[in-house]
């Protein structure tokens, strides 16, 4: 699904981008994504092309530049009177988002501070957008957008947030994953034979999440009740924050929140194909590192109930 504010340039009857000559004197700088000084090296490199560059994208309403400020400066440096332009049909907000989108495809990449500043603007315009969607728009990791979101909420004193966020595919997904799982359980109880897609549609979740919840319920249903009173109790991945035994310990509540927060289900299935190729090995290494730490954690937990080895009589 295309972004509703994606580039809308004037097109000819054949569907190709319509380009027109526009006088440089009629153009003016518009959306400014960069806060630093002009990069002279980049500007001179563009000027060497002597006009052999993509058309400058200009907002039709006021002839302000949406994308191509360096091409505009290069044309002035070369003494050109006219330059190729493609008109953009949209308001100021759409022009700002289009400038970000265009920058992710070509040109001089924005520095980190400029991308973070852009994320703050996008959050102000669309707080309902997901961290992944804003990250893809601004060239940031979703976690970075999440930290910016928390900082802005703290600075403004506004702790509220939309109950759902809109992803890049245009679908709304709830911010509270536990609330989503509760709705899935309700739908599965009403429609035990419903397909993953039907349940996902009714519950407002993804089929992968429905599959994970369904699997948890099936495992819970097949578990045999322990006969000895001292048999270990098996819990599903959710519900730790309501477990009386866990909460009875000194730091039980903190542990329950941490343990539930760090749990993952099948959601990763949807994320794998979207991972940039340049980050494949780094993410795989980090996942293996976390797996090792979880294994060590499990061993440490089990060690608490293992019988200590007999102490040598010679000691």
Major sheet summary line: 4 strands, mixed
**What is the CATH topology descriptor of the domain at 20-103?**
Conserved hypothetical protein from pyrococcus furiosus pfu- 392566-001, ParB domain
Estimate what percentage of residues fall within beta strands.
5-15%
Report mean pLDDT, rounded to a whole number.
Answer: 77
Total number of β-strand segments?
6
Class by alpha and beta content? alpha+beta
Radius of gyration: 27 Å
Oligomer classification: single chain
Biggest sheet: strands side by side, in what order?
1-4-2-3
Helix content: 40-55%
- Indicate the overall shape: elongated
- Spatial gap, N to C terminus: 73 Å
Helix and strand element order: EHEEHEHHHHEEHHHHHHH
Going by CATH, the homologous superfamily of the domain at 20-103 would be: Conserved hypothetical protein from pyrococcus furiosus pfu- 392566-001, ParB domain
CATH class of the domain at 20-103: Alpha Beta
User: What is the correct CATH architecture of the domain at 20-103?
Assistant: Alpha-Beta Complex
Low-confidence stretches: 1-15, 227-237, 310-315
Number of helices: 13
Can you describe this structure?
A 4-stranded mixed sheet has the order 1-4-2-3. Helix 4 packs across helix 5. Helix content is 47%, strand content 8%. Among the domains are: 20-103, Conserved hypothetical protein from pyrococcus furiosus pfu- 392566-001, ParB domain (Alpha-Beta Complex), CATH 3.90.1530; 112-173; 176-225. It is built from 13 helices and 6 strands. The termini are far apart. Strand 2 and strand 3 form a beta hairpin. It has helices at 40-47, 69-77, 92-103, 112-125, 131-138, 142-156, 177-190, 196-203, 207-222, 244-247, 252-261, 268-272, 280-303; strands at 20-23, 56-59, 64-67, 82-88, 164-166, 172-174. It is of the alpha+beta class.
